[in-house]
Design brief:
266 residues, alpha/beta, single chain, six-stranded mixed beta sheet, 11 helices, Rossmann fold, binds adenosine-5'-triphosphate, 40% helix, four-stranded antiparallel beta sheet
Amino acid sequence: MPTPPLIAFAHVGKSFDGGRGAERVLAVDDVSLEVAAGEFLAVVGGSGSGKTTLLRLANRLIDADLGHITVEGCDVRAVDPVALRRRIGYVFQSGGLFPHLSVAGNIGITPKLLGLPAAEISARVDDLLELVRLDRTLYRDRFPHELSGGQRQRVGVARALAAKPKIVLMDEPFGALDPLTRDALGDDYRRLHDRLGLTTVMITHDMTEAILLADRVAVMRAGRLLAQGTPTELSRSGDAYVGELLRTPRRQAERLQVLLPRDGAA
Ligand SMILES: Nc1ncnc2c1ncn2[C@@H]1O[C@H](COP(=O)(O)OP(=O)(O)OP(=O)(O)O)[C@@H](O)[C@H]1O
């Protein structure tokens, strides 16, 4: 018997008030998408295509107007939203850290809300710092403004993992970082995903990042899911927009092959 999906969207729709008499904005339009246990799915699409809305529907930061969403087999509407969010890690675009809390305070906040004893929280913070490769003696007591963007994202990942979730949702987590840091953090996260047996849904604007990190890629445009699949499956999609998104990484790969000698400094 096939394993049931860990997250399933079935014909999900969500619209918002456009404001000042404008038409309603159809942010997510009849989306059906399944994420298997242990899978790493990237959601790619332009600005305003509905990616963040889709993610926020999964952990009930907002509720769907139409369709059904299940997480671990349960309809999310039947689950207490706060309890649901504690089971699902969420990594925000720019870390989303609480500025008045130290690194340890940020990472430990969910275990604290769950009522874990202080000594256990402290040990977990240290474990998580090690997991995201931040030296605890240097970073534990720093505040977010004392960290680089990459370090803030590492703390954001540690915080998302603090309640030991099976599912992690990431909203453009590495977008604002320089290319080297972005690459390193992406690879590090992928290793964590595999090691901890996580199920990850990551939003990105960048098809190259999606192809390099994820098992499958879902492409959204104007609220609709245009295509989903492995990079090979996507490349067989007849959709013109999907083809356009794939052209850039393909062209870059071909040009780099020609321009960058293999026997250089690196
Ligand atoms: N709370 C809201 N109220 C009104 N409109 C909203 C709200 N949230 C999202 N929208 C609208 O829904 C559409 C989809 O937004 P969403 O944030 O999901 O897109 P996105 O693909 O994540 O964009 P970006 O890549 O720029 O973050 C947009 O037109 C946006 O303006």
